[in-house]
Amino acid sequence: MAEVKVDVSKLKNYINGEWVEGDKHTDVINPATGEAVVEVPLSSAKSVDDAVKAAKAAQKEWALVPAPERAEVLYRVGDLMKERKEEIAQLLTLENGKVIEEARGEVQEGIDMAYYMAGEGRRLFGQTTPSELRNKFAMSVRSPLGVVGIITPWNFPIAIATWKSFPAIVSGNAVVWKPATETPIMAHELVKIFESAGLPKGVINVVYGSGSEVGDAMVHHDGIRVISFTGSNDVGRDIAGKCGQQLKKVSLEMGGKNAVIVMDDADLNLAVEGILWSAFGTSGQRCTACSRVIVHEDVKEELEKRLLEEMKSLTIGNGLDSSVKVGPVINKGSLEKINSYIDIAKNEGAKLVAGGSIMNEGEYANGNYFEPTLFTDVKPDMRIALEEVFGPVLSLIPVKSFEEAIEVNNSVTYGLSSSIFTKDVNRVFAAQRDLDTGIVYVNAGTTGAEIHLPFGGTKGTGNGHRDSGVQALDVFTEWKAIYVDYSGKLQRAQIDNN
């Protein structure tokens, strides 16, 4: 395994282009080994206020920089991330635990986002439209909001940060960023890259700390115009309520209960491959992870047999070992939550056919490891089929028809990602129409979103905004309508046009 180290023993906040010492600190724990990696500040509301003041001052100047020039910084960020890809990926695995090939993929996602959003610096398109009056010109343009607050999770600590910060920055905003305290190293590394790329002081600011202290201070700060949050449903609802009271713009992405539908005509080998990656990649800790397989009863037995056979080949361990396919979960609290669902599922009548236990002996004694787990004969109304476990736990739900499969998929409160395996083109198009999720895959698993398409979901997954794609610009800009009257006289729109 590779030897990777952080370049400091104690992280600092980054405010107005300076590294600022924190008052209190806590350890960042490697979930694979239980060892402390680095110390991270637990900041106060004062640090948030300092960051917002710096961001407000910087944003006034940054907004005047032509967008193509702002974009040049992102191009350099992409180049620097590309040069340091392997190093960053190893540091990501060190603090997060995901296997190294997934970490490399996540860093690549950030690289792709840098280049994509840099391209928007020469677009940021508005619209021109005919006026209803003579000698009058009408158009709409995008304007930056000002100071943007982003709150990012531990499961994709650099990719999601790039989804949010890059469109905000290219649009002319300044950013105050609260990373997850479990995975702060990616913020430290990304800020260093921004520095090297020439981003002016104050345009990006990082304040480490808890959600209850730093996150809440950001949500309530008058100087922050928008909050972009990815995390749990409970926290997202709370943020939405508080932002609503302040008439503050808020973008939420809050997870899913994603399903793969396997029809009776599916390529089962392909379905098994897609299910395994979607369910057990990242140890099930993706908001797009597959936790339900809705399978036609005619192929249920065969699919279950093949899944059980392939699950035996899943190697579990430290993600820095390139032979490992399933790493640890993030912390002891997650381990206990996942474990609690095993008893819940058993008590409801689900049949456990693989896994179902914490791994805490031998080489796994100090880490946070949970066996890849499979339940069968799960009913759609069981808690294991409705609630987000966020771990390597998969449920097989048998159905009798395509129509029932769609109904079961849509019966949960979330609506992020769904998938169907079938060779029937009619079912494919019906599924695209009827699956009520923001992302739909055909003959693929529930993961694998690309950065140039919108990312987000329906119902309890979010509030209608999207990360990624050109749609992300809508979160970080306001539309401004502009009318230029060159008639030389007062024209009163509809009053003079009837």
From TrEMBL:
EC number in record: 1.2.1.3
Pfam family, one: Aldedh
Top-level taxonomic group: Bacteria
Keyword flag Transmembrane helix: no
InterPro entries reported for this sequence: Ald_DH/histidinol_DH (IPR016161), Ald_DH_C (IPR016163), Ald_DH_CS_CYS (IPR016160), Ald_DH_CS_GLU (IPR029510), Ald_DH_N (IPR016162), Aldehyde_DH_dom (IPR015590), ALDH7A1-like (IPR044638)
GO molecular function, one term: aldehyde dehydrogenase (NAD+) activity
Enzyme class, first EC level, given as a word: oxidoreductase
Domain Aldehyde dehydrogenase: 19-482
Active site per the UniProt annotation: 253
PROSITE patterns: ALDEHYDE_DEHYDR_CYS, ALDEHYDE_DEHYDR_GLU
PANTHER family assigned to the protein according to its UniProt record, in alphabetical order: ALPHA-AMINOADIPIC SEMIALDEHYDE DEHYDROGENASE
Subunit-structure text: Homotetramer.
Similarity-based family: Belongs to the aldehyde dehydrogenase family.
Name of the protein described by the UniProt record: aldehyde dehydrogenase (NAD(+))
Gene source species: Ornithinibacillus sp. 4-3
